[in-house]
Specification:
single chain, alpha+beta, Arc Repressor Mutant, subunit A
Length: 78
Amino acid sequence: MATDTNTARQGLMKFIAKKGGSIPMRDLHTHSLVFYQAGHQAFSLLMEGLVADGLVSYDEPTHVFSLTDKGRNVIEGS
């Protein structure tokens, strides 16, 4: 798992925002692995948590994660 789950969650949301608010899963997974040492299972847990918390949405047909308004508010407040 990532060294610091909260830091990884914030970092992933900020990266999605930096990429315009949406990003393909593959690109986000690579960023997660490089910057937060969160490989496949850890990445899945992080993203499932972000989706469950309503901070990020996932479009299964296109495999794209998108930052929600709630997610934007969280990173703007940090």
